[in-house]
Amino acid sequence: MRPASTQSLMPLWLLILIVGTIVGVSMGRSQSMGLYLQPVTGALGIGREPFALAMALTQLLMGLGAPFSGALIDSFGAGRVIIACVVTTIAGLYFMYAATSPADLLISGVLMGIGVSGTGVTSLVGTIGRLAPSDKRLSAIASIGMAAGIGGFVALPVMHFLIEFVGWQQSLLWLMLMTALLIPLAWPIGGKPVRVDGPTRDQSLREALGEAFRHPSYWLLTAGFFVCGFHVSFIMVHLPAFAVDQGLPGWVGPFALSVVGIANIVGTFLAGQSGPYIEKRRLLSLIYLARAVLFLGFLFLPLTPVTVITLCGLLGIFWLSTIPPTSGLVATFFGTQWMSMLFGFVFLSHQVGAFAGVWLGGRLFDLTKSYDAMWWLSVALGVISALLHWPISERPVPRVAAASAVNRA
């Protein structure tokens, strides 16, 4: 591919900073929308399920839009995709601001999901994956995951402060303004995508899809990532309400999620440095198994501010630490030319899981007035995902292996 001038003239660290800022703001806001569950449902006089369904649609549309956004970014660059998605996100925030019925919340959820599909980790991780040399790729991707964690750490207290002091509706106006500030950052990463290394022969979109869909390990990776979405989205949307239901102070949920964001920075950094020490598939199995064990704590430990915050801190270590090995496996299998799109299909599974986690959380709570069933389901899915990742074959497809051999010769 012919390099874009803005990208080719900028150092990798600056491009990581730009992409990380976009991802951090987008993912931080998205991960913090659970703070609106109680004020919005209280203001509209509705149960938790309609709001949970709207947020579940956000997660689903993030996934459905990710392969399309990824294909556009892989073909034309990230700039115009980011601008279009920022505008769509602002429209979604406005629909929630002006909501008078559950239908308005559903529209809001759909628009915000489409918006984040092009500004979140999934679509933009391919941009960094192409620009980073293979020996620095895992750590560069981890930097983007860390940015998402920093975004959550910053967004949660900021959004909680805004909701408390200016009201939930006025806080959404502030979020629209903050989101609009991402538009100028789209310029430096606009233009045609550039690859630092990778296969010498260009591959068509149809060839890339056919190769990926015939690869058994790609399907195992995709199925396992469903569980990540289920876990993360259930916690992010429902934990603040869960903490209040347990009789804990209102600050515990937002503070615990902020701790998740802090710990996620550490966990994602360690995952990015793990390449020389452990296979990516083994690391993923250990991450999901650790999550399953920690979820048992919400069922059997006495729930106090200390235990909830501690459990969330430990969970944070195993939070977005799944992204470097998961996206790294996609690059290992197929190279980086269509990385955004192919990781986008893996992320679609993640977001189907997110939809299930957010919606089932609201549905089962309304039916049982408890989150116990969700905790048990999260434990079971963690074990299943650990088993799914174990047999993955961590080798490039023959096309990539042959091209790498030629490049080394």
What this model shows, in words?
The chain is mainly alpha-helical. The longest helix is centred in the middle third of the chain and has 30 residues, at 137-166. The protein has a single domain (5-197, 205-404), classed as MFS general substrate transporter like domains (Growth Hormone, Chain: A). It is built from 18 helices and no strands. The chain has helices spanning 5-8, 12-31, 37-44, 48-76, 79-97, 102-117, 121-131, 137-166, 168-180, 205-213, 216-245, 252-272, 280-300, 305-317, 323-334, 339-368, 372-389, 398-408. It starts with a helix and ends with a helix. Helix 2 (12-31) crosses helix 8 and helix 5 (79-97) packs antiparallel against helix 9 (168-180). It is 77% helix and 0% strand.
Summarize the structure.
This protein is 77% helix and 0% strand. The chain is mainly alpha-helical and 409 residues long.
Percentage of residues in helical conformation: over 70%
> What is the N-to-C order of secondary-structure elements (H for helix, E for strand)?
HHHHHHHHHHHHHHHHHH
Number of DSSP helices? 18
Quaternary organisation of the protein chains: single chain
**Helix- and strand-based class?**
mainly alpha
Number of strands: 0
Q: CATH superfamily membership, which one? A: MFS general substrate transporter like domains
Fill in the CATH topology. Growth Hormone, Chain: A
**The CATH top-level class label:** Mainly Alpha
Could you give the distance between the termini?
21 Å
